[in-house]
Specification:
Elements (H helix, E strand, L loop, with lengths): L7 H4 L3 E10 L9 E11 L5 E10 L10 H7 L13 H18 L4 E6 L2 H14 L7 E8 H9 L4 H7 L12 H21 L11
Parallel strand pairs: 1-4, 4-5
Antiparallel strand pairs: 1-2, 2-3
Helix pairs in contact: 5-7
Length: 212
């Protein structure tokens, strides 16, 4: 019997992986502002190889009463008061994200989306907090399952820092562009695809049924 054409819907237990990166005004998702959000969806070709696909990116206006930690702003270089940021309200940002993800998830015939991120618990906590504040009904993301490229890169490449993992994978990384949600999400997407595709090329996927 001929092998079935591989699909994204059968690769990750029906989950649709979405690479996320956020820039924030601190480490506490409940009190500190979400300032920038980027997402990259993925697609699978007829050979089962994973590729980055669509991108969503926006700067976000701090929610009312949000805390802005000076040290965090100095680290990421974001000035929330800068008119050139062209930021939008958090609720608008999350609605736009969910609309894009739902459409792509449906097209891939997946049941639910799962966040892929470097140090995923951090990004997931801010996305979940923003979704809750925005009162999004039935968000596409699983509330606690995530794929962490920190752990995956540690296993596959022996590196846990994003720039070093990308370098080990042969992915160009400009450190001057780091701490931009859009740039980091794009590099994380490439890294995740590299690891998944490398695993396949080494014979780890699809799984071979055990011999009788």
């Amino acid at each position: 019997m001929a092998d079935e054409t591989p699909t994204l819907s059968t690769r990750f237990r029906g989950y649709f992986p979405v690479v996320i990166d956020v820039e924030t005004a601190g480490f506490n998702a409940g009190t500190d502002a979400l300032l920038e959000l980027a997402a990259v969806t993925l697609k699978m070709d007829a050979q089962g190889v994973l590729h980055p696909d669509q991108t969503y990116h926006t700067h976000v206006t701090p929610f009312e009463g949000a805390n802005l930690e000076p040290a965090a702003l100095e680290f990421n270089g974001i000035d929330p008061t800068c008119a050139l940021r062209a930021d939008i309200a958090e609720t608008e940002a999350m609605k736009g994200l969910c609309k894009m993800i739902r459409k792509a998830q449906k097209a891939a015939n997946c049941q639910r989306s799962v966040i892929v991120a470097h140090n995923a618990s951090f990004d997931q906590s801010f996305v979940n907090a923003a979704l809750a504040r925005s009162q999004i009904k039935r968000p596409p993301f699983h509330p606690f399952v995530s794929f962490d490229t920190t752990s995956l890169a540690g296993l596959a490449l022996g590196q846990t820092v994003l720039v070093k993992a990308c370098q080990a994978a042969g992915i160009a990384f400009d450190q001057k562009e780091a701490h931009s949600a859009l740039y980091d999400a794009a590099r994380t997407a490439e890294l995740f695809c590299y690891i998944v595709n490398r695993y396949q090329s080494l014979g780890g996927w699809p799984l071979t049924p055990p011999a009788d």
